[in-house]
């Protein structure tokens, strides 16, 4: 599916265990990049910006002006003066009404300062604005906000009275800001349009905002939107809550709210992580996106439901944002019954590494269950299994160990331990609900080797794979005979597939010949850049989107008659449309609509949860584009791009339901034919390379909505 790179060497099981544990250090599950930088539009209300500053003195180049330069994120730039007490005074030029301050004492090394802040109209008579003369709390990069009743002052003076590093060290002030009681500086919130990523600082542009969170959907559908919350002043304990939306008859549908976190994609801060918390602290000049989600009950009455999200902080007046939900009379089935063939590859070892638990232990499965249930609830059909060690030659941060252990006994006979394979497949089928197929990788690994444990020496060794050589059949024939017998005993024979992705025809043919001889019931799944006559004939084929046209038309119709699956994929390629962290959100929804418009069975992507060292810090890994390796985050946290992909999968289901309706209803037949024609013009390989994805998705949603109404 992609070019593979060797990032980590293969090694013994003991060494790999240590390696996995070593990777677990220095993780920060609650980490979020610093969000507010200097000189942003969020500083527009700062009354101290550009003000005259004087001080009792300064040390070297630590001049007083540095305390009002707008730089709050650099602890190395501050006003400093040795000795205690020392003071710094801000002159606003004329008396101004002041109602809050935000102060950033130097924070490195857990420094604790005692200080007081006073205000004066004439520079002679002073009144206390903030008294921290008994402070025992260490300074932080977030600074300290203070609010008080409006005071008319021209001068503001901060006097340092103590330093935990020693009073001889003096006082150090990174920044001080002052604000008046202007309404524009209070807490503000508004609904944001569907596909916008909210910038991390400054008020969002008016072009992004709308009057309400407007949602719509069929019964059984999930609908989600965003709210932006911002303020030029710090807002501690920001929270967002909703009592639900209610129809005219008083029936209530619950609404979930959650804070959206930022992470890094390349050099950019990007909103993507949908957190589990619905409260946080809002920094001065910062913006916090809020996720608003409604899971429409299957029993909901059609019609309009209304409610509001209430946004509040520790002080100040709450802000309300309307939520309007329109429920259609149609129903989506439960995801387990969706027709879409979704294949996002899972990575169990990433969950074990992140949470520091023993792989395949009860704790591991308990942690995986909600993560994999989220995938099942998006229509997932395939279980990703590894027949051998590192089938893709170590292209991920975490090890991809074998689920079937190959052991060569002292008598020279190979045997296979299926314990972890059985645990994983049983778990995914019985506890998670993914039951479509078992995709086993691979008979043609990227490094063309199979690792096995040699009992005679107690060491791991490798078998070289040479397709079309007698040794290839000698290796795989006994395994397939034993594996076939095993999966048949488990009742999985009809679901078991062998994955042969991105391999030349000669290799695929060699593997198929061995399969046909020893396990003819096993099907072949193949994600391949451009299918050939050989790979176009396999059970489940998935070309990259650029070559999706090679499996459509008469070939697709014939494959459907034969019960075969035909999907498409994106990965590191193409740049667009895709589901990278830096991709416009509409592209994720565009992808399943492309499948629906072209009558494909679904969508494949190589990685659902192959996390890097810490996805909360950044989404880059190796040579892959940001976010290429995963769609969700540790701790069972979804993302904006995964939710948009899921929205597209729901639209895929609607299209197929309408097509089924047309087959039974003459009234619907003409409407659905028009829908198919219009969608086929919007979702083409040629258009995939353009920039109209959001426009295409909006048009498609409207086409589907109108077709639904006409065909009732």
Protein model, in words:
There is one protein chain. This protein is of the alpha/beta class and about 700 residues long.
Describe what is shown at a glance:
With about 700 residues, this protein is α/β, with parallel strands linked by helices. The chain is about 25% helix and about 30% strand.
Describe the global form. Answer: globular
Mean pLDDT: 92
* Fraction of helical residues: 10-25%
Characterize the main sheet: 8 strands, parallel
Q: Uncertain regions: pLDDT < 50 for 5+ in a row?
A: 1-29, 36-42
Rg on CA atoms, Å? 30 Å
Estimate the strand proportion: 25-35%
SSE diagram, text form:
Elements lengths: L12 H11 L28 E4 L23 E3 L4 E20 L7 E8 L6 E6 L11 E20 L7 E9 L8 E5 L16 E2 L2 E7 L2 E9 L4 E8 L2 E2 L5 E2 L2 E10 L2 E7 L4 E4 L4 E9 L7 E10 L6 E13 L9 E4 L3 H8 L6 H15 L5 E5 L18 E4 L5 E4 L1 H14 L4 E5 L7 E6 L4 E6 L5 H21 L5 E4 L5 H14 L4 E6 L11 E4 L10 H8 L3 E6 L14 H13 L4 E4 L32 E2 H25 L1 H17 L2 H4 L4 H18 L2
Which structural traits does this protein have?
12 helices; disordered N terminus; Jelly Rolls; eight-stranded parallel β-sheet; 712 residues; seven-stranded antiparallel β-sheet; TIM Barrel; 3 domains
């Amino acid at each position: 599916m992609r070019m593979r790179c060797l990032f980590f060497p293969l090694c013994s099981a003991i060494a790999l265990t240590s390696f996995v544990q070593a990777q677990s250090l220095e993780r920060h599950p609650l980490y979020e990049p610093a969000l507010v930088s200097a000189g942003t539009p969020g500083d527009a209300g700062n009354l101290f910006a550009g003000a005259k500053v004087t001080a009792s003195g300064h040390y070297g180049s630590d001049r007083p002006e540095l305390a009002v330069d707008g730089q709050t994120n650099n602890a190395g730039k501050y006003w400093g003066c040795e000795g205690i007490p020392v003071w710094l005074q801000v002159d606003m030029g004329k008396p101004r009404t002041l109602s809050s301050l935000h102060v950033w004492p130097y924070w490195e090394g857990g420094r604790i300062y005692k200080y007081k802040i006073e205000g004066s109209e004439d520079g002679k008579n002073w009144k206390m604005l903030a008294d921290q003369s008994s402070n025992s709390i260490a300074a932080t990069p977030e600074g300290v906000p203070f609010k008080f009743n409006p005071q008319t002052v021209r001068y503001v003076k901060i006097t340092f009275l103590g330093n935990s590093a020693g009073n001889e060290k003096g006082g150090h002030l990174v920044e001080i800001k002052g604000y008046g009681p202007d309404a524009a500086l209070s807490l503000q919130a508004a609904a944001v349009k569907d596909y916008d990523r909210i910038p991390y600082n400054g008020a969002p542009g008016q072009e992004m905002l709308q009057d309400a969170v407007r949602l719509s959907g069929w019964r059984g559908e999930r609908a989600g939107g965003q709210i932006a919350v911002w303020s030029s002043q710090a807002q501690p304990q920001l929270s967002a809550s909703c009592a639900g939306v209610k129809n005219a008859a008083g029936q209530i549908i619950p609404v979930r709210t959650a804070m959206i976190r930022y992470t890094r994609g390349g050099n950019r801060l990007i909103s993507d992580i949908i957190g589990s918390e619905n409260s946080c602290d809002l920094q001065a000049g910062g913006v916090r996106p809020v996720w608003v989600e409604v899971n429409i009950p299957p029993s909901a009455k059609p019609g309009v439901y209304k409610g509001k999200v209430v946004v509040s902080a520790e002080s100040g007046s709450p802000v309300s944002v309307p939520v309007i939900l329109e429920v259609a009379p149609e129903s989506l089935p439960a995801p387990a019954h969706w027709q879409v063939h979704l294949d996002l590859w899972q990575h169990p070892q990433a969950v074990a590494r992140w949470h520091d638990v023993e792989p395949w232990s009860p704790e591991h499965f308990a942690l995986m269950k909600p993560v994999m249930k989220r995938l099942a609830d998006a229509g997932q059909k395939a279980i990703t299994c590894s027949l051998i060690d590192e089938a893709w030659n170590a292209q991920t941060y975490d090890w991809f160990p074998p689920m079937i252990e190959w052991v060569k006994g002292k008598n020279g006979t190979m045997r296979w331990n299926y314990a972890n394979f059985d645990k994983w497949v049983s778990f995914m089928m019985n506890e998670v609900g993914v039951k479509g197929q078992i995709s086993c990788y691979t008979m043609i690994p990227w490094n063309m080797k199979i690792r096995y444990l040699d009992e005679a020496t107690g060491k791991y060794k490798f078998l070289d794979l040479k397709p079309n050589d007698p040794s290839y059949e000698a290796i795989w024939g006994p395994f397939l005979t034993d594996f076939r017998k095993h999966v048949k005993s488990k009742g999985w024979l009809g679901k078991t597939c062998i994955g042969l992705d991105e391999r030349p025809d000669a290799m695929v043919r060699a593997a198929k010949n061995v399969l046909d001889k020893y396990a003819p019931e096993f099907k072949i799944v193949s994600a391949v850049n451009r299918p050939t006559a050989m790979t176009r004939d396999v059970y489940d084929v998935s070309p990259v989107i650029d070559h999706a046209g090679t499996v459509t038309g008469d070939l697709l119709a014939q494959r459907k008659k034969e019960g075969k699956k035909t999907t498409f994929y994106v990965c590191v390629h193409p740049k667009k449309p895709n589901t990278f962290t830096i991709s416009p959100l509409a592209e994720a929804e565009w992808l399943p609509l492309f499948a629906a418009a072209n009558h494909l069975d679904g969508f494949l992507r190589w990685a659902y949860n192959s996390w890097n060292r810490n996805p909360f810090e950044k989404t880059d890994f190796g040579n892959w584009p940001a976010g290429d390796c995963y769609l969700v985050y540790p701790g069972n946290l979804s993302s904006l791009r995964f939710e948009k992909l899921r929205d597209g999968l729901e639209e895929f289901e609607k299209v197929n339901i309408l097509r089924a309706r047309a087959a039974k209803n003459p009234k619907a037949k003409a409407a659905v034919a028009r829908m198919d024609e219009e969608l086929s013009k919007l979702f083409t390989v040629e258009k995939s390379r353009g920039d109209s994805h959001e426009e295409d998705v909006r048009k498609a949603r409207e086409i589907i909505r109108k077709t639904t109404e006409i065909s009732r």
